[in-house]
User: Which sequence fits this backbone?
C-alpha cells in the first residue's frame, strides 16, 4: 500500500466499535477524529449496518449515475433537501469531497460563463487539480503547477480583502464556515454577509464547502443554518455517507440543469450515488435526526471547552464537535500525538496548523468519555514545562 508521508502513524486497526478503535494486539483507543469528521454515529452503528446489508441483498452497482432511478439514492436526496432552504432542492451525488468541489467549480463556470474563483487562504478543498487550485499554500501546490489560473485568495474574516475583489469575472466564491485545516477557525457572520452581498452584486455563485462542518458536526444539519446566510451551492461529503465514500453537490434544479444540456453529461461519474453508500448515508441521517436532542452537541462542546484548561493550552476554537485545542508552540505536535496514542487517544494534527490537537470525535461520545480524554490530554501536557 502506498504511503503519503515518510513516517505514517501505522497503527494496525483490527476493529472499531462505538467511540473505540482496537489495534491488532487488542489495545483500545478513543477515536478523537472520526476518520477526519466522518463516523458521526461512531463505529458499528446497527441501523447503518442493517441498511447496508439490506441494500446489498437488493442490488449494488447497476449503471452510471444519472441514467436509471434507484429507490435508495432518490429517498436520500429527498431527505437531504427536506432539511434545506427551498432554493437547494437538487442533489448530484459523487464519490468524494474533492470530486464534489470539482463538480461545483465546473457548474459555476458553466452557469456564469466565467473562470475565476475566490478562495480563502489556508483552505483545503480536496486533492484533485480543481480543488488544489483553490489552495494558496505553496508547499502543497508548487510541485503540481500549472493549476487553474485566476484564483484570488482572501484571508478568513478580512473585510478589506472582500472589498478589493474584482468587480466582475468571478465565477464563484468558495467558503468553509469553520475553516477546519487552519485549526477550526470560525467565519464571522458579518464577513459572510459581505461575501453574500459581493456575490449578489457581481452575479458570482456562493459555494459553501460543508464537507467537514455538515451533517450535524457543528450542531445544526449544516453550519450555514446557524448563520442565516444561504449559499447558491452547498457541498457535503465525509459524514454524509455514514462511513461509506459519498459526497454531493446541492443547488437549485434550475442551476443543476447546466449539467444535462449543451453539453449533455456535463459531469459524469460511474459510482457516484452508489446505492450501498446512499443506504448508509440515509440510515445515518435518519438516525442522527432521531437522536439529535440526546446527542446534545452544544453540551459536549462545552464539556471539552470547560475541561481543556491547562498552562500549555492556549485556546480552544471551533464549533460543536469540530474543535481545535491550541497548545504552546514549543510542543512538537507529532511527538505529543504519539504520547496521546500511548495513553489510548487517537488524534491528528491539522494541515495548516501544527500547534493544535484535532477534536472531532463521533457525535455519540459521552460526557464521561470527554472527561477521561481531557484528563489524559492534560496529564500528557503536564510533562512539558518551559
Ligand atoms: N473540503 C474540506 C473542507 C475537507 O476537509 C476535505 C477533506 O478533508 C475535502 C474538501 C476533500 O474531501 P475528500 O478527501 O473526500 O476528497
Assistant:
Amino acid at each position: 500500500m502506498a504511503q503519503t508521508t515518510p513516517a505514517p502513524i501505522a497503527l494496525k486497526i483490527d476493529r472499531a466499535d462505538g467511540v473505540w478503535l482496537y489495534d491488532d494486539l487488542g489495545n483500545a483507543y478513543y477515536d478523537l477524529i472520526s476518520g477526519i469528521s466522518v463516523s458521526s454515529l461512531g463505529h458499528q452503528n446497527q441501523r447503518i449496518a442493517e441498511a447496508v446489508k439490506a441494500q446489498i441483498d437488493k442490488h449494488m452497482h447497476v449503471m452510471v449515475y444519472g441514467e436509471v432511478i434507484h429507490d435508495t439514492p432518490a429517498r436520500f436526496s429527498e431527505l437531504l433537501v427536506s432539511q434545506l432552504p427551498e432554493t437547494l432542492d437538487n442533489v448530484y451525488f459523487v464519490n468524494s469531497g474533492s470530486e464534489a468541489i470539482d463538480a461545483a467549480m465546473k457548474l459555476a463556470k458553466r452557469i456564469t460563463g466565467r473562470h475565476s474563483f475566490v478562495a480563502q487562504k489556508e483552505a483545503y478543498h480536496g486533492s484533485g487539480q480543481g480543488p488544489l487550485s483553490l489552495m494558496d499554500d505553496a508547499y502543497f501546490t508548487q510541485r503540481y503547477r500549472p493549476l487553474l489560473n485566476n484564483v484570488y485568495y482572501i484571508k478568513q474574516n478580512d473585510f478589506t480583502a472582500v472589498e478589493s475583489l474584482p468587480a466582475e469575472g468571478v465565477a464563484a466564491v468558495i467558503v468553509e464556515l469553520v475553516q477546519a485545516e487552519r485549526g477550526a477557525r470560525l467565519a464571522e457572520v458579518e464577513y459572510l454577509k459581505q461575501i453574500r452581498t459581493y456575490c449578489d452584486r457581481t452575479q458570482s455563485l456562493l459555494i459553501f464547502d460543508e464537507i467537514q462542518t455538515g451533517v450535524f458536526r457543528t450542531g445544526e444539519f449544516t453550519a450555514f443554518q446557524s448563520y442565516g446566510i444561504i449559499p447558491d451551492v452547498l457541498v457535503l461529503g465525509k459524514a454524509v455517507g455514514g462511513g461509506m465514500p459519498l459526497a454531493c453537490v446541492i443547488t437549485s434544479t434550475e442551476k443543476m440543469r447546466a449539467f444535462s444540456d449543451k453539453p449533455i453529461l456535463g459531469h459524469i461519474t460511474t459510482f457516484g450515488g452508489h446505492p450501498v453508500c446512499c443506504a448508509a448515508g440515509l440510515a445515518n441521517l435518519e438516525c442522527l435526526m432521531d437522536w439529535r436532542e440526546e446527542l446534545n452537541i452544544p453540551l459536549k462542546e462545552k464539556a471539552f471547552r470547560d475541561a481543556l484548561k491547562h498552562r500549555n493550552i492556549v485556546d480552544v476554537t471551533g464549533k460543536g464537535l469540530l474543535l481545535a485545542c491550541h497548545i504552546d508552540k514549543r510542543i512538537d505536535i507529532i511527538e505529543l500525538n504519539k504520547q496521546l496514542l500511548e495513553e489510548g487517544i487517537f488524534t491528528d494534527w491539522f494541515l495548516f496548523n501544527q500547534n493544535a490537537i484535532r477534536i472531532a470525535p463521533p457525535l455519540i461520545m459521552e460526557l464521561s468519555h470527554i472527561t477521561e480524554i481531557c484528563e489524559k490530554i492534560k496529564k500528557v501536557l503536564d510533562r512539558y514545562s518551559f
Observations:
- The chain has 14 helices and 16 strands.
- The pocket of pyridoxal-5'-phosphate is lined by residues 36, 96-98, 101, 124-126, 176, 180, 209, 211-212, 237, 247 (CB under 6 Å).
- The chain has a mean pLDDT of 97.
- The chain has two domains: 13-44+295-381, 46-291.
